[in-house]
């Protein structure tokens, strides 16, 4: 089921599920459309804010439905579906819902959501202001410039989080999950009205999480936005020295940090070079490779 096919069914299913889950704990407010339309715009906006906004992220699922909705939002979301261009009530509700909540979505679902319209009159992606894009496990991150490039077409987006996954121990590294999207990520980082944050969720081998299982509201997500900061000449020199030391090492240690510390490097310096400086040098090289490819195609 795709977004365009599932819109009406999703609305009905969400209402049904909401009624099942919250009948005993929550009674949705009575909505009198005619009365609400007689109120000042600020009063209508306050009403919609109370029933359509929540503090935690709302997940957009592959079939076009939503999950992790608070009870008051789940029971009111049907109000955001306009039936025609003249349905002012639904357009105002949709504006509040999509612009004031944060949404989380899998990178593979993102292109479908961007092109999705409700009853051929409303494209929700044009209203989104806060978005978290979730990548798959390091074995299958589901990445590529093509999937992410649609974000460049979202005029209202102001806060974007790209959340990658890697193993906590012996991870694949950013060359696996960051490299494929680096061209579009670089373009996004240069947009003046967009706040871009890169984050990494740690996972364990054998327990790979699908993107929708990532809790975007948890504090354990590691901020790796610094990977986009261009390294200085001295920082690049330290990275190349790291590779030289590791290539010449013949001992039993397997990790780069362990090798460097055994060879006399300070623990903090070794970790800084491996965990931060090396990815930053990598990003610089990847972007140079992208430019070379573009020049070759031209």
What are its keywords?
seven-stranded mixed beta sheet, alpha/beta, 44% helix, 298 residues, 7 strands
Average pLDDT, rounded to a whole number, is 86
Series of H and E elements = HHHEEHHEHEHEHHEEHHH
Q: The biggest beta sheet, please?
A: 7 strands, mixed
What's the count of strands? 7
Strand line-up of the largest beta sheet: 2-1-3-4-5-6-7
Strand content: 5-15%
Shape from CA axes?
elongated
Helix content: 40-55%
- Enumerate how many helices there are, as a single number: 12
CA(first)-CA(last) distance: 39 Å
Q: If you compute it from the alpha carbons, what radius of gyration comes out, rounded to the nearest whole angstrom?
A: 23 Å
- What structural class do helix, strand and pairing data support? alpha/beta
Poorly predicted runs are: 4-24
């Amino acid at each position: 089921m795709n977004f365009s096919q599932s819109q009406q069914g999703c609305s009905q299913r969400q209402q049904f599920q909401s009624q099942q889950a919250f009948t005993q704990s929550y009674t949705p407010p009575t909505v009198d459309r005619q009365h609400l339309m007689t109120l000042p715009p600020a009063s209508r906006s306050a009403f919609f804010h109370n029933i359509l906004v929540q503090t935690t992220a709302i997940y957009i699922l592959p079939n076009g439905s939503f999950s992790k909705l608070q009870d008051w939002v789940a029971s009111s979301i049907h109000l955001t579906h306009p039936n025609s261009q003249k349905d002012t009530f639904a357009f105002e509700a949709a504006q509040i819902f999509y612009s004031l909540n944060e949404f989380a979505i899998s990178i593979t679902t993102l292109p479908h959501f961007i092109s999705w319209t409700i009853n051929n009159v409303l494209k929700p992606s044009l209203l989104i202001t806060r978005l978290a894009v979730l990548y798959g496990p390091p074995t299958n991150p589901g990445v590529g410039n093509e999937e992410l490039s649609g974000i460049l077409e979202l005029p209202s987006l102001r806060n974007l989080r790209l959340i990658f996954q890697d193993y906590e121990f012996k991870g694949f590294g950013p060359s696996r999950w960051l490299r494929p999207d680096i061209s579009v990520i670089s373009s996004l980082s240069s947009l003046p009205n967009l706040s871009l944050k890169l984050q990494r969720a740690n996972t364990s081998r054998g327990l790979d999480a699908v993107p929708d299982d990532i809790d975007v509201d948890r504090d354990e997500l590691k901020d790796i936005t610094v990977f986009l900061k261009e390294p200085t000449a001295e920082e690049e020199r330290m990275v190349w020295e790291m590779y030289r030391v590791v290539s010449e090492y013949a001992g039993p240690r397997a990790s780069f940090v362990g090798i460097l510390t055994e060879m006399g490097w300070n623990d903090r310096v070794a970790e800084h070079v491996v965990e931060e400086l090396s990815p930053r040098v990598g990003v610089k090289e990847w972007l140079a490779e992208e430019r070379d490819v573009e020049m070759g195609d031209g």
